[in-house]
């Protein structure tokens, strides 16, 4: 009996060791591109082409990449553009998707099941399949602007958000809503006073996922708002890669400045991501 317990204990220890090594390897693998960016952001062009993964030396080290990239990116304007589009689109996605998911869960009809199925099925359609028709339609109705881009983000982001909210709302006891209704609580007050406070973790989770997606998105903004004055940070960074020359030194510094805000936001909210997803997965 004692021998069996020792074997099980050794087996669990070996599993933890393997999982730890695998986690460490994957962590290093994912962090390696950021390591390359940080190092090359402090090198001149010669240093980057001479040794990409090495530390900068006295001949290649420079600090001018960051101020030059800041000026080339028109960082303040581009940052405000990215922030405005990301915040407004995310807030609207959270509001509309949570309300839609709540209605689909509480009104148990065949129509609600079909609508939820359509939302779930739409997640399987690649953006590239609707890209050209979308741009043509947007051009015809005159929404090739930041407002139109926000409207499109609402459409593309709602499907995943509704599916996640739908799973979470199933776990909220209906008795709470029934008691509030008996006390004379209307639908809007019921939703915003009872349901929304109980959805805090999943709201933060969905917000983080949408913020990271919208902030880093390049393809859709390049089709809709790729004009001076409207460009977001991902669009501006592409200017470092010209047809005949590529400024890897400025691009590295610019990319670091682009990802710092979203990394800070993610680190502040990361504890809610797993909790929100697991809470929504347990029925």
UniProtKB/TrEMBL annotation:
Subcellular location: Cell membrane
Organism (species): Hungatella hathewayi
Keywords: Cell membrane, Membrane, Transmembrane, Transmembrane helix, Transport
Protein name per the record: Carbohydrate ABC transporter permease
Short name of any one Pfam family annotated for the protein: BPD_transp_1
Record family assignment: Belongs to the binding-protein-dependent transport system permease family.
Biological process according to GO: transmembrane transport
Residue ranges of domain ABC transmembrane type-1 in the record: 79-268
Signal sequence annotation: none
GO cellular component labels: plasma membrane
Membrane topology, as annotated: Multi-pass membrane protein
Cited InterPro entries: MetI-like, MetI-like_sf
Annotated transmembrane regions: 17-38, 83-105, 114-138, 150-169, 190-215, 250-269
């Amino acid at each position: 009996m004692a021998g069996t317990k020792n074997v099980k204990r050794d087996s669990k220890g070996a599993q933890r060791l393997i999982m730890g090594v695998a986690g460490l390897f994957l962590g290093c693998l994912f962090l390696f591109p950021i390591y390359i960016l940080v190092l090359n952001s402090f090198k001149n062009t010669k240093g980057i082409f001479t040794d990409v993964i090495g530390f900068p030396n006295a001949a290649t080290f420079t600090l001018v990449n960051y101020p030059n990239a800041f000026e080339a990116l028109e960082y303040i304007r581009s940052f405000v553009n990215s922030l405005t589009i990301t915040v407004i689109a995310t807030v609207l996605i959270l509001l509309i998707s949570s309300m839609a998911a709540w209605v689909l869960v509480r009104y148990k009809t065949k129509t609600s099941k079909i609508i939820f199925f359509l939302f779930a099925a739409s997640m399987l359609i690649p953006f590239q399949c609707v890209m050209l028709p979308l741009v043509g339609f947007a051009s015809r109705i005159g929404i090739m602007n930041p407002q139109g881009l926000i409207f499109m983000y609402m459409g593309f982001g709602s499907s995943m958000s509704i599916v996640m909210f739908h799973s979470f709302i199933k776990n909220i006891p209906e008795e709470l809503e029934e008691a509030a209704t008996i006390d004379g609580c209307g639908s809007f007050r019921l939703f915003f006073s009872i349901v929304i406070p109980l959805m805090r973790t999943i709201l933060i989770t969905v917000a983080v996922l949408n913020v990271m997606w919208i902030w880093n998105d390049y393809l859709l903004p390049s089709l809709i708002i790729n004009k001076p004055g409207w460009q977001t940070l991902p669009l501006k960074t592409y200017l470092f890669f010209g047809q005949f020359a590529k400024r890897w030194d400025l691009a590295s510094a610019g990319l670091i400045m682009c990802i710092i805000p979203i990394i800070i936001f993610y680190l502040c909210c990361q504890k809610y991501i797993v909790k929100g997803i697991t809470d929504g997965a347990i029925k």
